[in-house]
Amino acid sequence: MIVPFSATLPDDLARVGGKGQNLGALTRAGFPVPPGFCVTTAAYRRFVAGCPTFSAWLDRLDALDPDDVAGARELGAAVRDALLAVPLPEEVVGEITTAHESLGREHAYAVRSSATAEDLPGASFAGQQDTYLNIRGGDELLAAVRRCFASLFTDRAILYRARNGFGHRQVALAVVVQRMVVPDASGILFTADPVTGHRGTLTIDAGYGLGEALVGGLVTADLYRVDRRTGALKELRVGDKQVAIRPVPGGGTVTEDVPEDRRRARVLDDAAVAALADLGARVEAHYGGVPQDLEWCLEGHRWWLVQARPITSLYPLPAPGPDDGAVHLYLSFGHAQNMTDPITPMGRDLWRAVFPIGKTRMDELPCGATTMVDAGSRLFLDITPVLRLGPTRRLMFRIFRAVYPDVGARLATLVDRPEIQAAARPRPAALGLFARMMWRVPLDIAWVLLGARLEDQPAWADRMVAARVAGFRRAVEAEPPGVARLRAARQALTGLFQVLPEIAPRLVSGLLSLGRLRRRFADSPYAADVEALQRGLVGNVTTEMDLRVGDLADLARPFPELRAALEHVRPGELHRLRELPGGPVFLDALAAFLDRFGMRGQAEIDIGRPRWADDPGLLLASIRGIAAHGDAPGQHRRHFATLQAEAEAAAQRLVAAAPAPVRWLVRRQVQCVRHCLGLREHPKYLFVQCFEIVRSTVLAAADALVRAGRIAAAGDVWFLTYDELLELAADANAFDPRPRIVARRADHEHSRHLNPPLVVTSEGEVPARPVPKDLPEGAIAGLGASAGVVEGIARVVLDPAAEVLRAGEILVAPYTDPGWTPLFVHAAGLVCDVGGMMTHGSVIAREYGIPAVVGVGDGTRRLKSGQRLRVDGGRGIVEVLAEAAP
């Protein structure tokens, strides 16, 4: 039940906990660690076995709501009281006493909790259990160990486990007993910058005495930021260190005032900073390059390490990294598509087949070109080469300013750095692919702006999408099922971006026209009319889908029994609705809807996510929520017609207000906005239909693997790469895919808890977002994507399948895509963590005429359902007017 640090094993987590395992590893590697031993989890289990009510308490903890802070506090106190009434078993007391004597009873010790779910790569649990310093004497040591055991059930530890998916029964506690160091200085060292994520920056916090003053927030520590490449001190902030905590000879600690002349003096000189930085780099190297969070002490001229753990807050580096020795810039593909969930391995693999755009065959990919990389189970686009050429750089920044201002602002702080300018320019082959595909676009833009019949553009887009999908289907289904069809599906997907030269001129023409109109009427009474042009746009396929959802709700609204049944019906039981009043008509309409839009769904850019045709649960929940509201039948269509009428009236005012010589041009620009901007959703509509053909092909191959016993379920196939699937389909004796699937599923689930950055460098740096100077206190800044001001009650929705929006509420979401649009029917406003001017939520908000602020970063964490908000879609500001009622 006792293990010295030097006798721990590399896989000893379950026996000595995270802290004990890390201290043991440092000791075995020869790093300066004060000697000590671990009281193992076997001793903890022997201890809790003496509490007759312990199992019942665990049952109550397992049933606790992760958000029930008061309940956690009450239950935690009760469990701790029950455990503290139990004595340590005699055999545990005997072994601790023997170990204590062997280390020396004359020394003082730190007694620290070490949980089995602690200091892990995915969760730190830092500070969740108790620590006791300067413990002297055998009785005091035993009492501290018992209190540490009980501290596994502090309310903060209970809630942390519940919210991070760690079962209370699966976690156990060991205790680290470590000889006390009496330091002159102590602090924390991060081998990467914990704020920006920069792996090339090492940061040190330092204060006098024991580190408890720093950790407890009693002092403002010195901050040292070191460039790891050169060893230079990049930043020094000397803190006001008013107090220091020091051990007392008889046991315990005391807080002392720091003399005035030392409060604003440096704790560490340059030589000490360099020595500590070198120590941190060696520890990181020992852990395979994983950035570390270290606690250190300086006693005289001797350094000690008293804790090491991975930095769990860092977002993973993009991989594969650059091979040219330079620093590269990456843009989140998920943010650009307004979907920040992790993407399955198969989904990521197929998007890499699509990029870079311009190619028509897989073997046309330029040698060595890595356009898309992985990080945190998401995809990131390497935009560095494009930013290295003057013309493409200017074009990119112009697009960012118009569509995604936040990206431009962040990139501007990075792009001129020498280490980024050293990156390779775009390969001629890659530029050739793009130029060969897009050379006609400028001519076509001129044609659309000046000569095309604009009223026909939405119908043309519908025909174009239908023809492309039909051609895609023919190319895939011309091959026999199995390997040949799988290859054909990926080949067809590879050239799908060839649609861009056809659709881009229409979209660009609409955007150019909108920009011209904004500039023309910027300082006039008609500026609001320019923005009103975007309401009720003609030909938006997602808006059409939304209106048809409203039609389905109208069919269900008169029938309470049918509405109630929509809440619980399973995909295979839809036919049972036919037995209810109103059921036959509703089911026929639903079937027609799914025939047109069944390939859509939440997070649809991931081919591994269910579609509405697979599981219409989200769709039915939205229909039920809309139907439960007391709107008159057809109200949604009347509202949309009103928006269209308002936009047409605004168009007439703009034309009438234009000077006579340019009135024809303004009329043309107005119509270009009305009839071309609505086509923005057609490319994605095309993609998801083609993805569905690929998806069906992959699932057919997966079913064959299930029948052969190679995989357990068809859904497992999404955790393979496409080449792995081809290998399995071609060779019955190929590798066993199940271990890979299990590991990738676990990695995918872990990635759900990561917060992906919008922009990141190959060194992990996430540039800070510029904060508006006129931001009201406590307000959240974002991008104003749909003008107007609204006040209302917030509804934070993380999963649209689990929430229904009530009329007049403000939707607060991590992102929105077409799978979320049924919620827009009732939304009075929109606040989105991600997004730009032309991302899904922004376009739909403008069409519906509701104020929207997108790209706020962390709105779903900072805002709470029930709060009263003011959303200013013009200034891009969200204010909390009143807290949520209990």
From TrEMBL:
Keyword Disulfide bond: no
SUPFAM superfamilies per UniProt: Glutathione synthetase ATP-binding domain-like, Phosphohistidine domain
Ranges of residues in domain Pyruvate phosphate dikinase AMP/ATP-binding: 15-313
One GO MF term: kinase activity
Keywords, sorted A to Z: ATP-binding, Kinase, Nucleotide-binding, Pyruvate, Transferase
Pfam families linked to this entry: PEP-utilizers, PPDK_N
Chain ranges of the PEP-utilising enzyme mobile domain: 806-876
Stated name of the protein: Pyruvate, water dikinase
Species lineage: Bacteria, Pseudomonadati, Myxococcota, Polyangia, Nannocystales
